[in-house]
């Protein structure tokens, strides 16, 4: 999953488009930080106007760091979506996700700390504590304000959060209702350095299409499964190529689970669930690749992959 991804160091070394630098252009990184399930990925997708990062109502849907790049004539904002920082969960995969989240706010220009309107938990508290040591300015985004009809009702919550951390700006937002998105861009731009674009202008992410394809399949898995399987499942792309003759993409996805019972659940009665997952994933893959797609999914048992450092690395959980 990682070998064919773009290498940020290579891109930075090339100096991007320094020659064209006009003196006013702004570019930099904005890390999206917070506990699981506050809406970080949904928000990033809305800011980009494009679905890059997978989302679901289950915590820990995002496992990898992913850059979403927004380029205009005046600026390039590179949003860094991260797995939610979480407590509990003692497996190697939990370590991996927390390490990924922790490393994401080093070397960024702005931190967007996302919390959920009306809900402040121990995990938010833990993130707030971490942010005290951060160098970059923190903008607090209170997401899901659509849940509150009356803005006044939010005041006690804002008061409480203000006592827990210091932040540079506070913006009530709703990814669902697209409230506050322009304010986020404005506040980020106030803090973004003047420099040339970091990525070429046609790049929307630092991840390969193959990686995005695996993530799409994993999203459909997360969304279709009950609570017993999602955390024990991952996806590996075995074949990803364009068939010139047929004029379509051939994608083979291998779904790895940890136990025979989980395999049965993913397949479903008479194969119905895996069929549903496949047809939902295919739809998104067609949108991603802008072409016809032939998708085949297999399920295999790989015991203990989520707590085995070597297995994790071979499955692409090695990028921080
Ligand atoms: N009501 C409401 N729900 C939202 C909003 N943004 C995200 N969600 C939901 O919150 C859940 C978690 O979203 P996700 O983006 O995966 O959260 P993440 O774990 O922080 O990346 C999903 O079910 C989203 O649909 C919002 O603005 N309002
Ligand atoms: Mg996420």
TrEMBL record:
Region (G4): 143-146
Residue segments, region G3: 81-84
Keyword RNA-binding on entry: yes
Region annotation G1: where it falls in the sequence: 34-41
Subcellular location: Cytoplasm; Cell membrane
Residues engaged in binding GTP: 34-41, 81-85, 143-146
Membrane topology of the entry: Peripheral membrane protein
PROSITE patterns: G_ERA, KH_TYPE_2
InterPro entries found in the cross-reference section: G_ERA_dom, GTP-bd, GTPase_Era-like, KH_dom-like_a/b, KH_dom_type_2, KH_sf_prok-type, P-loop_NTPase, Small_GTP-bd
Domain Era-type G residues, every copy: 26-194
Protein's UniProt keywords contain Transit peptide: no
SUPFAM superfamilies named in the record: P-loop containing nucleoside triphosphate hydrolases, Prokaryotic type KH domain (KH-domain type II)
Domain KH type-2: from-to ranges: 217-303
Chain segments carrying region G5: 173-175
CDD domains: Era, KH-II_Era
Keywords: Cell membrane, Cytoplasm, GTP-binding, Membrane, Nucleotide-binding, Ribosome biogenesis, RNA-binding, rRNA-binding
Family as reported in the entry's similarity comment: Belongs to the TRAFAC class TrmE-Era-EngA-EngB-Septin-like GTPase superfamily. Era GTPase family.
NCBIfam families: era, PRK00089.1, small_GTP
Role played: An essential GTPase that binds both GDP and GTP, with rapid nucleotide exchange. Plays a role in 16S rRNA processing and 30S ribosomal subunit biogenesis and possibly also in cell cycle regulation and energy metabolism.
Quaternary structure and interacting proteins, as annotated: Monomer.
Protein name according to UniProt: GTPase Era
Organism: Thiomicrorhabdus heinhorstiae
Lineage, broadest ranks: Bacteria, Pseudomonadati, Pseudomonadota, Gammaproteobacteria, Thiotrichales
């Amino acid at each position: 999953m990682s070998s064919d991804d773009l290498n940020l160091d290579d891109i930075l070394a090339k100096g991007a488009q320094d020659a064209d630098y006009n003196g006013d252009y702004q570019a930099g990184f904005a890390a999206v930080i917070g506990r699981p399930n506050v809406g970080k990925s949904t928000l990033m997708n809305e800011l980009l106007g494009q679905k890059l990062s997978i989302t679901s109502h289950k915590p820990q849907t995002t496992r990898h760091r992913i850059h979403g790049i927004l380029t205009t004539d005046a600026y390039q904002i590179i949003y860094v979506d991260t797995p939610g920082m979480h407590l509990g969960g003692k497996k190697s995969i939990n370590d991996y996700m927390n390490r990924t989240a922790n490393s994401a706010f080093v070397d960024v220009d702005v931190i967007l700390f996302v919390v959920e309107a009306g809900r402040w938990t121990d995990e938010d508290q833990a993130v707030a504590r971490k942010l005290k040591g951060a160098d970059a300015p923190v903008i607090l985004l209170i997401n899901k304000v659509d849940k509150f009809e009356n803005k006044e009702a939010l005041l006690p919550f804002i008061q409480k959060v203000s006592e827990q951390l210091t932040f540079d700006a506070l913006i009530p937002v709703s990814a669902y209702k697209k409230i506050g998105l322009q304010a986020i861009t404005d506040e980020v731009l106030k803090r973004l350095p003047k420099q040339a674009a970091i990525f070429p202008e046609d790049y929307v992410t630092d991840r390969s299409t193959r990686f995005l394809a695996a993530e799409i399949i994993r999203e459909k898995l997360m969304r279709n499964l009950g609570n017993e399987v999602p955390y024990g499942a991952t996806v590996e792309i075995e074949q990803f190529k364009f068939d010139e003759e047929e004029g379509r993409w051939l994608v083979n996805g291998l779904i790895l689970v940890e136990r025979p019972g989980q395999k049965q659940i993913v397949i479903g009665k008479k194969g119905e669930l895996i069929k549903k997952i496949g047809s939902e994933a295919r739809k998104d893959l067609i949108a991603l690749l802008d072409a016809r797609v032939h998708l085949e999914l297999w399920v295999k048992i790989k015991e203990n992959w989520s707590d085995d450092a070597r297995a994790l690395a071979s499955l692409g959980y090695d990028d921080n």
